[in-house]
Amino acid sequence: MSSGAPSPEPPPTAPRAPPAGSAGFVLLHFTASRLLYLAAAVLSHLLLTGGNAERIDLPSLAQLQDLCRRALFFADSGWYWNVMQDGYTVKPFAAGQEDWGFFPLYPLLIRALGSSVLAGILVSHAAAFTALLLLYGSVRRRCDERTARWTVRLLAYFPTTWFVSSFRPDGLLFLLMVLVFELAERRRLAWVCLVSFLCVLTKQNGVVIAPALCAYWLVEHRFRPGQVPPLHWVAALAPTACALGGLSLYFWHITGEPLAWTKVQQAWGRELASPAGPMLRWLRDPVLVDHGGWNLSLLNFAGVIACLAIGIAMLRRWRTSLDHAVFCLSLALLSLACGGEWNFLRYSAFCWPAFVYLARSCRDETLTVVLAASSALLALYATWIALDVHAAMG
Question: Is residue 197's pLDDT more than 90?
Fold first, then answer.
């Protein structure tokens, strides 16, 4: 007869050791994908600058170094560089593009490591590789070896995961988000709190870790909220509240506006609104590319729809995949609510649960070749457009 007392929490299971060669497998695909997209960036620039010339000369070593730098340091990289060098702009808040919308962890880390572009690029690559390695082990424990390998392949070769290698915090956030779930699986609550806090200090998208962690605790405790220890809820929600609260106090001090970090986004056409609005606007007036070539609108819209569809599909397995479903849905809805579908595919690496779902659905091994070829073409096209915008502006 039951005494009515809550059942004791089961001890954490010891993670299975990864198979020999797992690090080599991840390193192989990570390196191959980085070289593939770097070559695509260099080739697109050569084709663009070659114009109608009958022959395109190979770049010199100095030109090649400059091309590689441009492929890894672009757009928002300059904002993070300025924050790293000079700190945030101290002046009363006013509408316009300012550095207050770029969160501090990545610039602070680069400053601590030498304040150079090379340091930032190395950090991004190291973080992205470590995230893939951790994710490989996590998916193998949660699913199986085959799903883990497909997850690595899909993430490594998906075109917009190139951003995790550039001079920006995308790779760092990818690592921190994967690490939060790894630590939660091992029930290291203090570390979960710390890494969740760092997620939010890295990029605004880091706030999705809070609802995803709440869903994770529910899955772990068989959907009995009363049996989830209070400290678990604290570990899920308090770090996000503390990080945003601390940032708001800091920006209040330097600008007089505690919400400067989010209100400044209006200068880039991003403001809080209904998630349905951007989708309805695009359906009424579909475009291929807008914002001067920076937004591959059709691809980003398709990415949002795919992420939402995968999140809803994962709800069918809510007893085991609710945390992943909440992660995907939160990221898609947050992106839509804070600026529409614009550049959604840049956040694709953060949405790694979607790739886990796709990996579980893959049955044809030849898809690797198709994926690599289509990804290379898409990367070439996207880089061509970006460089064309630079040329037009210059």
Answer: yes
